[in-house]
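Figure 2 data, in text form.
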Amino acid sequence: MKFPQRPKNHNLEELSERYFNNCLPNNWYSYKPENDYGVDLIVDLFEGIYATGLELLIQLKSSNNSNELPTEQIRLNVSTYNYLIRKLQVVMLVKYVRVENEAYWILLKGVPEPNQDNLSFTINIPKENRLSVINWDAIKSYIREVTERKLAAQKAHIQQARKLEQ
């Protein structure tokens, strides 16, 4: 008898998501958005049992094998970069390597802007940025700083608009 087969890339995608979720602090929650335009996972940050309103957006890539370079490389469409860089939340790019059972990360702010004439570009993620030893407290502090700065700018904009209306 014949049965449907599961494509290898489905298995690899699931392994990468499991690995990522296992690296998160126990009280943080990740979920897949309904439509994927470049955000594979959204992570809600908690402090103890309390929601913080802070979010981290994840673009998750994976491969079966590693390379011999001091970086892991991912290809990203320029259109996806443009979409992600305009997001108000902090964005993290993660690459899971199955043979190593490890993932590597870089914040989008650390990625140079690509040439807009190209369709895609290569991003180098330093291999010392291992997800298994990431300092989530430092990431949370950075997310909080960015979020508060953007909220302050939004509040100032609203106040100025109200002054103009009067």
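Caption note: The chain has a mean pLDDT of 93.
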